[in-house]
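Researcher: Quick test of sequence recovery. Tokens follow.
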């Protein structure tokens, strides 16, 4: 197994606009990230993934970029960014940025020129066609927007305000490669690549038999040539790591993007869980994990995450955010940090923050949710029914401000927060976590420390046991003489753990568990959401 610094890393995702506000405008900012870097370092994370902070009209919270080489004012200045990068490096940490190059903002100068006339030199920076087709976009009923001025439609995989770049145009590719060098030459340590498998479009844009299954947007012919050209022209010249956000992908296809000899990307996020599993389904989760391990291990590197800025908080979606919030947060953390692949911590996950439930659609910001709400209500459906339906998976569930303490606005801002703070901040906040030796925060810290001290958690082989147990997910990790057993009761009921005979005879000691007191009455009875890591001898 080839070793690499990034394979051993733990990534902490900073959604800066909800992280810490220092100028009172109600938005987090880069200065706020600088002031809280020691909090992230002390947790043990060593790479920060910073969500987009480039010039943008902010229709999709920075994923609609109008100036790739500037910092949007609400985040700060380029000087502040450079101070942040230095401060991260001074702590021996690394920083990766979001690369959003499938599309720009409709306010980008390139698009303003492109839409101005059919013979503008930048017309072909984007995708224009006389006729539309029946494809849906992620955020709208159609991927096409008609413009009277030139009598053609432009293509957008997301919002109308996010026109897709035409990657068939070598001038577009050169512009992007040049922009990437601009940031890499500043010293950033890599990229998280936004929906990077959508860059190539289906030739001819044929109508889809099933327009609602939007997988036609990704993994089209040409994508690997683009990424190999990007690697040859830019990526291979820097000591960085790249992670592709790759929806609609299987392990076999995934290897085409991150295979060790492919000359494309280093790692990926797949979405078989977060895009398709609304609630916890243990058998399905085990099947997905096993299939991705069998498909990738030894050939490419995977990621482990169960929430980010697009997916609601794991303790609400998959765990138990009431009776067993702390236990289930720690149980899932144990899983994410012991499964094969790179663990990602989304800000607030480390203190067990939960999803939200605001009263009205007007309390929400997410363009995906608001567009879907509008689309469904315009079909004549009852607004409250649509609202209730969208609540559970709204991306705003994870985008509310981080809870620093129990003061106004959870210590996030002295101004009016851009989105409401989760009302449970008085009970769930960093200050409380740092004062409680049994907090989720310190459990994450112990898990990360265990990982840093034991290569078996990074490079060990994985073998599931108790495969069909309806509550328990258990598996071993083995590297050389080291054999670890992870057992997780991912349920709100006690569970009996009947280990295989060979294993039950082995002596074992518990390295970490999420219950303060071991249940001495019966080691083989796991309490609700009880997690244990054993070292087997
Ligand atoms: O997300 C792609 C996207 O639409 C995800 O929400 C999707 O549901 C899944 O998580 C990936 O298949 C990226 C960004 O993360 C998101 O915030 C942006 O809105 C979107 O691209 C457009 O840039």
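Model:
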């Amino acid at each position: 197994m080839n070793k690499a610094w990034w394979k051993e890393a733990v990534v902490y995702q900073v959604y800066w606009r909800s992280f810490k506000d220092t100028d009172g405008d109600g938005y987090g900012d880069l200065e706020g990230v600088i002031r809280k870097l020691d909090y992230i370092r002390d947790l043990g994370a060593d790479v920060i993934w910073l969500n987009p902070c480039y010039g943008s009209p902010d229709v999709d919270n920075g994923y609609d970029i109008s100036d790739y080489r500037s910092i949007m004012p609400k985040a700060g200045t380029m000087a502040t960014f450079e101070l942040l990068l230095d401060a991260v490096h001074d702590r021996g940490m690394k920083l990766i940025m979001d690369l959003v190059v499938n599309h720009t903002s409709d306010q980008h100068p390139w698009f303003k020129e492109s839409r101005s006339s059919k013979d503008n030199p930048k017309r072909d920076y984007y995708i224009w066609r006389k006729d539309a087709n029946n494809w849906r976009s992620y955020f709208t009923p159609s991927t096409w927007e008609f413009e009277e001025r030139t009598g053609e439609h432009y293509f957008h995989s997301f919002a109308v305000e996010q026109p897709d770049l035409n990657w068939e145009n070598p001038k577009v590719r050169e512009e992007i490669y040049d922009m990437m060098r601009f940031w890499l030459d500043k010293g950033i340590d890599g990229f998280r690549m936004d929906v990077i498998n959508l860059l190539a479009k289906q030739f001819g844009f044929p109508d889809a038999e099933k327009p609602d299954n939007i997988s036609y947007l990704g993994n089209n012919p040409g994508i690997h040539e683009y990424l190999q050209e990007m690697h040859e022209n830019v990526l291979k010249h820097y000591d960085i790591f790249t992670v592709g956000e790759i929806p609609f992908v299987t392990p076999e296809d995934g290897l085409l993007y991150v295979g060790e000899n492919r000359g494309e990307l280093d790692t990926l996020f797949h979405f078989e869980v977060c895009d398709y599993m609304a609630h916890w389904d243990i058998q399905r989760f085990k099947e997905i994990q096993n299939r991705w391990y069998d498909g990738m291990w030894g050939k490419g590197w995977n990621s482990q995450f169960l929430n980010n800025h697009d997916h609601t908080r794991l303790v609400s979606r998959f765990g138990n955010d009431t009776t067993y919030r702390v236990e289930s947060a720690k149980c899932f953390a144990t899983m994410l940090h012991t499964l094969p692949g790179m663990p990602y911590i989304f800000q607030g996950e480390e203190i067990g923050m939960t999803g939200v439930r605001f009263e009205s659609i007007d309390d929400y910001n997410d363009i995906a949710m608001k567009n879907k709400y509008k689309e469904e209500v315009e079909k004549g459906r009852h607004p409250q029914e649509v609202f209730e339906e969208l609540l559970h998976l709204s991306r705003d569930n994870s985008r509310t401000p981080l809870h620093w303490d129990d003061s106004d606005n959870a210590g996030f801002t002295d101004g009016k927060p851009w989105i409401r703070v989760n009302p449970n901040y008085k009970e769930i906040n960093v200050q409380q976590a740092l004062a409680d030796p049994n907090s989720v925060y310190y459990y994450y810290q112990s898990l990360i420390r265990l990982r840093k001290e034991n290569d078996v958690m990074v490079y060990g082989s994985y073998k599931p046991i108790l495969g069909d147990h309806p509550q328990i997910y258990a598996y071993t990790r083995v590297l050389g003489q080291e054999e670890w057993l992870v057992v997780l009761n991912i349920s709100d009921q006690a569970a009996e753990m009947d280990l295989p005979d060979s294993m039950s005879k082995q002596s074992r000691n518990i390295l970490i568990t999420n219950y303060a007191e071991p249940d001495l009455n019966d080691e083989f009875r796991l309490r609700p959401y009880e997690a244990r890591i054993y070292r087997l001898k």
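The pocket of 1-O-alpha-D-glucopyranosyl-D-fructose is lined by residues 60, 63, 100, 138, 158, 194-195, 245, 247, 271, 274-275, 309-310 (CB under 6 Å).
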